[in-house]
Amino acid sequence: MKTYAVKLGDIKRNWLVVDAEGQTLGRFASRVAGLLRGKHKPIFSPHLDVGDYVIVVNAAKVRVTGEKLTQKQYYRHSGYPGGLKTELLRDVLAKRPERVIEHAVKGMLPHNALGHQLLRKLKVYAGPTHPHAAQQPVELVLE
After folding, report:
1. Rounded Cα gap, residues 16 and 72, in angstroms
2. DSSP label at 53?
């Protein structure tokens, strides 16, 4: 028997629409990261991008447990002394809810060039509509 090697011609990428309403943030992000990587496909290969495009709608309605709304902080640094900025999860959800899901999914992807390539296939929208109707995406229900 020979080991099967995935060729670029064998990779078929679908467009999937996933609704984040009522989903717990971490569990939802790990499922989305798996779809982006292609772990649900029989031709999965850890060093290749074989995953699908994922459109996340209703990002503003994602759910968090415990006291994360008031305790979880997002950090960024300007590079200058004293340039550390922090934001609470509730403030980020109010201003840019897409960033919460993008940040969570980014942390679950490989931290290399492949991860950056996978992250470009993630499209996140705060509301129920998206501009990707021409791609004929398939609705996917994550349990």
Report:
1. 29
2. E
Judge whether 71 and 33 are in contact, CB under 8 Å: no
- Domains recognised in the chain with CATH numbers: 12-64+96-140 (3.90.1180.10)
Residue showing tokens 């569990």: 27
In whole angstroms, give the CA distance from residue 101 to residue 35. Answer: 14
The contacts of residue 110 (CB under 8 Å, 6+ apart) are 118
SS (H, E, C) 74-123: EEEECCCCCCEEEEEHHHHHHHCHHHHHHHHHHCCCCCCHHHHHHHCCEE
pTM of the predicted protein model: 0.93
Structure tokens at 31: 């499922």
Give dist(CA 114, CA 130) in Å, integer.
Answer: 25
Q: Which pLDDT tens digit goes with each residue over 57-113?
A: 999 999 999 999 999 999 999 999 999 999 999 999 999 999 999 999 999 999 999
User: How far apart are the C-alpha atoms of 119 and 66, rounded to whole Å?
Assistant: 28
Structure tokens at 122: 């993630």
